[in-house]
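Long-time lurker, first post. I've been practising inverse folding by hand and with some scripts of my own, and I keep getting stuck on stretches where the structure tokens seem ambiguous. Below is the full token string for one chain I'm working on. Before anyone asks, I'm not after the true native sequence, just a reasonable design that respects the backbone. If someone could post their per-position residues I'd love to compare against what I wrote down in my notebook.
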């Protein structure tokens, strides 16, 4: 089985209205499995235009998120197990990281 981590990201405007929702794929890893409530440490997320990317400008910062759902995909070969992290909201204009 393969394991992966995903996170729902809501891109919102200054009025807290959702412009777009995307699922950010943190990637696949070799792990023994996940359980609800576990904490995952990642880089913070940011926006490059309307694309969600890791914000690695501050290399010492990290974000802790809890696993809120686990999904077993039996239609993929090999079987995939996806852990979904807490939803994060990114505000256009405040979470822009520009281009590198």
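-- Answer (accepted) --
I ran through it position by position. Result:
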């Amino acid at each position: 089985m393969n394991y992966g981590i995903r996170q729902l990201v809501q891109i919102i405007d200054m009025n807290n209205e959702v412009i777009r929702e995307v699922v950010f794929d943190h990637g696949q890893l070799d792990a023994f499995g996940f359980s609800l409530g576990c904490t995952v440490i990642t880089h913070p997320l940011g926006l490059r235009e309307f694309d969600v990317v890791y914000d690695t400008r501050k290399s010492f910062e990290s974000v802790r998120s809890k696993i809120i759902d686990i999904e077993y995909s039996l239609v993929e070969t090999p079987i995939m197990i996806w852990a979904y992290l807490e939803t994060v909201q990114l505000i256009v204009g405040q979470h822009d990281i520009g281009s590198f």
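A couple of notes from the structure itself: The longest strand covers residues 18-29. DSSP finds no helices and seven strands in the chain. Happy to go over any region you disagree with.
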